[in-house]
Amino acid sequence: MPQKLLEISKVGKSYGNSVILSDANLVINEGEFIALVGMSGGGKSTLLRMLAGLEETSAGSIIQDGNKIHGLNKEARVMFQEDRLLPWMNVIDNVLLDKKGKQAVSEATELLEQVELEQYAKQFPSQLSGGQRQRVALARALMSHPRLLLLDEPLGALDALTRTKMQDLIRKVCQDKAITTFLVTHDINEAVRMADRIAIIKNGTIWRIVDNPYRGKESLIDKEKEVEISEEILAEILD
Amino acid sequence: MENIETNENYHFSFKFKNSLPWLIPVFLIVFWQVACNLSWVNETLLPSPIDVVTNGIKLFKKGELQENMSISLYRATAGLLIGGGLGFILGFINGVSRRARLLFDSTIQMLRNIPHLALIPLIILWLGIGESAKISLVALGCLFPMYINTYHGITSVDPKLIEMGKSYELSKKDLFIKVIFPGALPTILMGVRYALGVMWTTLIVAETISASSGIGYMSTNAEQFMDMKTIVLCILIYALLGKLSDFIAKNLEDIFLEWRAIERRNTDASETSGDK
Amino acid sequence: MKNLKKSFIAILLLFWCGIAVYGWHLTREDAGSSSLKNVVLGYQAGDEFYISKIRGQFVKKMKAKGYNVKFKEFQNGAAMMQALASGNVDYARVGDTPPVSALASGTKLTYVAAGGTKAKGSGILIHKNSSIKTLADLKGKKVAYTKGTSSQYMLLRALKVAGLSNDDITWVNLDSDAASVAYSKGKVDAWANWDPSVAQVEITENSKLLVDGTTTKALNRSFIVSPTTYASKNKTLSKLIIKYTEQDMKWANKNHSKLIKKMSADLKLSKKVVRRSVTRRTFSMKAMSKSVVKEEQEIANVFYDNNILTKKIDVSKHVQYLK
What is the mean pLDDT of chain C? Predict the structure, then answer.
């Protein structure tokens, strides 16, 4: 039986009269990779921001380790859609951010090796490509050893080839470190390629959760099954 | 051999490029000298550059020139530091605190629209005619450009970066040092550059009010006796000092904003490669 | 390359700061030593205090008596009166007109001493080839003057002598710099002015005085004035200043050639100009007397009658007779 990390129960969010999300329920287990898919403007990012504590819930509660999330969720780190790297700092300083000391520097270097950017450590973000910048952002997020990694469509702006490479890289790094990961995406194929379970957001709530048994611990992907599940989810959303 | 030649070519074009901005000033001075030599202009109204320079050397030997220059430089620097520092602090406080902004900003905007030179009579009556009056006037001139640029720089830092910093648990101090300040720095340095310009113009006026030293005094004193050589010399000194401070400001930008230069170079490069 | 630039700018900034600190030192030196009592004297180039300043004896003698003298130069009397009102000048050497205007605007000042006149060096300048031959020819002409200075009084007196009314000429109020340009370009027909400027214009602009102060009785006398409260507390000091200035004046009257040499080098005026302005006046500095008070009262009256001053002034109430 997997350990429960976080429980979203009856969560709602509204701005004035417009309701974005209502009665959303989801349990996220320790170490799993879960994706949230749905149409644009369906409240996916809003839910992620509530998990990060960047926004408060209007109704219901998000419980993490028995505590209701209120204010910044210190055990979570967000990778935003834009890389949000500080343009005035070189790559390694961006990864380090406020951390100091030899230990931190060697750790940051190690992370850069894992995202295959060790030779770019002294360059500025503007000298890197979009995919490289997102890899730096990933290293920065991992630098603080989060228990929960929140990915807010981080690959949305990348070209298809870079995207596939990044999906595998992120999946691998998160799996190696056994970090619980929550991915928000509008790309069903991406969700199927990366996540253990896929939550579908529809009509302003979490509509259904689909298991993705062909991803996960096994490294082999059953292409046919993948397509099958993708089509199933797509049908579900469009229904 | 070929290699060396191309190298020289490169050097030549490099130097030529560097000297281009000086082309017009040099041409003007040469033209001016020729005009004087050929008596196209009345030398009592416009002395020739050589006369001006010899006059400068004479005043330098007497010690007058360098004394007045260093006194002017002292007044300018003290005014800039006081006014610029105050402007920075006010701009910073109003930039980060909404409450302070509500309290101070509209008052400052009102005061800003008073031409600071219009305050000369008040300053004379309050502070007299000593050093403090002149320095205050320069400080007043430098305060507003620094205030506006600091305030504007801080309030226009990308809120997404600030959100990132907050969600990555940066302390207030780190958030300022690593995100807000460097983000506002380009605009702040623009303010410094502008304040440097205002500094000189204000100082000229400040030194005409009953000073007994400084470049501005030298020039008004000369004006009284129609000593055109000294007047022109003072104007040239102002031009050079203005150029020098602008040069320093520009280089400070290059040093502190290296990342921006690299960014610009990269976007230029990607644009040209995109055209191909 | 980049480090080179960094160190270059750093050196430049250090150099800048070094010079600025040196400048600061220079302004501190002016402040003088602390055990002595500071006295600030306001002067204008070429006047009595100016002579004391360039001769150098005055400062030494005052130092021996326990005073640290600071000279402050002003471009005109009005600015000096402003500084006097705000307590930045203890004694001001001015012409006869600015103190009257200052009294009318409420400045509390006291006449401490009276000097010689510049009657022969003050007047109305015209070009030698000008169509103006007599005072009466001024009718319908443009005449430059500076408001609140002796030139205004000069012009009023001249018109009275000529039997003209104030509306018979066009009054052009310009400060001396602007007036000098306007006059040399012929934008004005005549210019009421005083020495050394008159001497300079006479020589360089081929001009002469249509009338001078001896005719118009606009004498352009020198005065030393002081803030009233300061003057009443420092009578001994005032007496010292009169005494030592008078000594310098005697020296000046006897040593024209030395004085002319010094002044022309310092003021950057030709010796010819300085000689003319120096030889046509007599330097002196004495305590106030009833007759000079009467002269001042006349100025106040004329200004009041011509609506230049809105207040009637009794000069005798603002005088200290030091004996």
Answer: 86
Instruction: Using the CB atoms, write b or e for A157-192: b if 16+ within 10 Å.
Output: ebeeebbeebbebbbebbbeeebbbbbbbbbbbbbb
The CATH homologous superfamily of the domain defined by B65-265? MetI-like (1.10.3720.10)
Say how far residue A211 (Cα) sits from the centre of its chain.
18
Q: Which of B162, B166, B259, B260 to mutate to test the interface with A (most CBs of A within 10 A)?
A: B259
Percentage of residues in chain C having pLDDT higher than 70:
97
B181 touches chain C (CB under 8 A): no
| Start-to-end CA span in chain B (Å) | 33
Which of 1.10.10.10, 3.40.190.10, 1.20.120.430, 3.40.50.300 is the CATH number of C35-118+220-318?
3.40.190.10
Ranges of each domain in chain C: 35-118+220-318, 120-216
A127/chain B closest Cα distance in angstroms = 7
Asked if B254 reaches chain C (Cβ–Cβ under 8 Å), the answer is yes
H/E element, B210: none
Looking at the predicted structure, is the pLDDT value of residue C30 above 90?
Answer: no
Q: Tell whether A78 lies on the interface with B, counting CB pairs under 8 A.
A: yes
Domain C120-216 of CATH type 3.40.190.10: yes
Closest CA of chain B from A218, distance in Å: 33
User: In order along chain B (276 residues), what is the average pLDDT of each group of 10 residues?
Assistant: 46 68 87 86 80 88 86 92 94 89 86 82 77 89 93 92 91 91 93 92 81 81 75 89 90 87 75 44
What does the alpha-carbon distance between residue C32 and residue B127 come to, in Å, rounded to a whole number?
19
Nearest residue of B to residue C179, measured between CA atoms: B224
Predicted local confidence at residue C227, as pLDDT: 92
Query: Please, do chains A and C touch (3+ CB pairs < 8 Å)?
Result: no
pLDDT, greater one: A88 or A222: A88
Nearest CB to B164: which of A84, A89, A126? A84
pLDDT at res. B270? 59
The mean pLDDT of C119-147, rounded to a whole number, is 87
B79/chain C closest Cα distance in angstroms:
11
Q: pLDDT tens, B25-61?
A: 889 889 988 888 888 877 767 888 888 898 889 888 8
d(CA B234, CA B64): 12
Give Rg (Cα) of chain C.
22
Q: Kindly state whether B30 is in contact with chain C, defined as any CB-CB distance less than 8 angstroms.
A: no
Interchain CB contact of A122 with B (< 8 Å): no
